[in-house]
Structure formats: structure tokens, C-alpha cells
Write a structure and sequence with these properties.
Blueprint: H1 13-28, H2 34-47, H3 50-78
């Protein structure tokens, strides 16, 4: 029996925030490269109060509970997943 991939981890609060604000920021700053845009979003995230971040953190916590159940079931059925090794970057 082939071993399927384990369930994916839930997105963190920051990534949820980024997914929410990225389209607006792209329209506001169309000249920025993706790296610059993400940097700007990160700075905005840091200025948010804990109360403002709660919306995104709660979504993460909710999905984390679901993930934990799915992962537990996966481990019981298939055992612990093998870690994927990242290949070494070749020197040019």
C-alpha cells in the first residue's frame, strides 16, 4: 500500500493576514516586487495590536485542532511520516 502525504499544517496567523491584505496592497503599490510587498505587509502586521491579530490567530487555532486530529489518524494508520530532505544547492 502506498503511503499518502501527511496532512498539511495550517497557515499561521501572519499568513492568513497576508492572504487577506495582499490583493489590496498589490493595488495600492503595483510597482513593488513581491519581496518588497511581503516586507511591507510584515511591517503592517507588526503594527497591529494583539486584539487586531486575534481574528487571524483564532483561525489558526481552529485549523490546528483539525490538523492535529488528522495527523493523529495518519500516524496511527501509516506511522510517523518521513521527513523530506531538502536537496543541497549546487554551486555554479
Amino acid at each position: 500500500m502506498d503511503r499518502p502525504d501527511p496532512p498539511k499544517r495550517p497557515m499561521s496567523g501572519f499568513f492568513r493576514f497576508m492572504k487577506d491584505v495582499e490583493p489590496k496592497m498589490k493595488k495600492k503599490y503595483p510597482e513593488l516586487k513581491r519581496t518588497q510587498l511581503v516586507s511591507k505587509i510584515g511591517k503592517e502586521w507588526k503594527t497591529k495590536s494583539e486584539a487586531q491579530k486575534t481574528k487571524y490567530q483564532k483561525g489558526y487555532e481552529k485549523d490546528k485542532k483539525v490538523y492535529n486530529k488528522l495527523f493523529e489518524a495518519y500516524v496511527q494508520k501509516f506511522g510517523k511520516p518521513k521527513r523530506k530532505r531538502r536537496g543541497k544547492k549546487s554551486k555554479k
